[in-house]
DNA sequence: TATATAGGCAACTAATTGGTTGCCTGTCAA
DNA sequence: TTGACAGGCAACCAATTAGTTGCCTATATA
């Protein structure tokens, strides 16, 4: 679960979209995820493998199906240990204020 | 300043190290940054160009020198608008994950 | 059992990336 | 004015990556 693997996994828009899909509906199978991506099953499978390698997605076998679950822990770790250091001070306060004014939202 | 450019810029360990260097001492020139990286000047220059493209670094010409400054705004934006979404349901998701992953499994 | 379904593995291609070397421009200072 | 210094531009190379196609195994079900 190296930090580099997480950053690299997050660098691809297709993989971020996969995380978004799982965030919207957790536990989807490979074929279910394929239908939302304009890509072959094998293409999606490779991206999922990279997300698994970064521990951003964990899976569970259910018979012949494989359920994919989002694991937000590595993202939280990055936010805490790396991004936090660049957010300190005034910008952090502004971001917080902005969030409060916009109210709690998923987007 | 697309989000994709920021993610891609952050994906490389050399570029993250450059940001760390600027975080430690802001306004360094290209040659100053080169001395801390085991790389040619042109290699560092390319990385800096990518960071500039993502607006993570802004520059100021001073005669024949070019000072590089860290701009934390895009990082704050990512943390606020994207990572926050996955951190929000962090505890709930982890509990949910734990529950689902319990039970008989061949992994 | 036979067949359709869910997924895995491997090879291959095309594009991108990280890094190099070589040369050029612009600026400062003796 | 002349040389040294800071940086930019472009070509090039090796390694990685995104995506494909083809074939394979395993499981569920008519």
UniProtKB/TrEMBL annotation, chains A, B:
Coiled coil: none
GO molecular function: DNA binding; DNA-binding transcription factor activity
Record keywords: DNA-binding
Protein's recorded name: DNA-binding transcriptional regulator, ArsR family
Stored CDD domains: HTH_ARSR
InterPro entries the record matches: ArsR-like_HTH, HTH_ArsR_DNA-bd_dom, WH-like_DNA-bd_sf, WH_DNA-bd_sf
Keyword DNA-binding on entry: yes
